[in-house]
Amino acid sequence: MKNNDIKPFKIRLVHKNDILILSEIFSKVFTEADIKKPWDKDNSYKHLMYWLKIQPDMFFGAFKDNKPIGAIAVNIKPWRTGMRCCAGIIFVDSQYKKQKIAKFLFKKILEKAVGKYKAMSFEAVTFAGKDFPLNWYERVGLVSDKNTVLIKGDCLDILKNLF
What we know:
By secondary structure, the protein is of the alpha+beta class. It has helices at residues 19-33, 41-54, 101-117, 134-139, 155-162, and strands at 10-13, 59-64, 67-79, 82-92, 119-122. Strand 4 (82-92), helix 3 (101-117) and strand 5 form a beta-alpha-beta unit.
């Protein structure tokens, strides 16, 4: 698809009635990405509703024939260096990969983040130990932050260890 070609899909804000189909896509895509950490449809639905509630103006979907085929969501927060576009999810139905849909979604969200919120930077977490999607992020200009480490733990274990 060249820049001057008409996209065979439309990008618009996601609405509540889009979430059910998007949660099915999200569940499938993220389970395929890491089979050891599957996403069921119920938790996928709750996760996408979370994104819709926290910042609905920063949750865009790609639609083909009015049917959702992918989405991107981020939140905007103040940071020491200015406004930051962060966290986020991006996913495209497997049958529509290699059509630059993720790039168009990413472009749309960043244009809105910069234009409306004056965002200066973008950060996200992605899968480790896999070429994709890290190599895709690197191709569009993101780099691994060597000064940070993702930490996580079980809340009950942490509570036991505090005192």
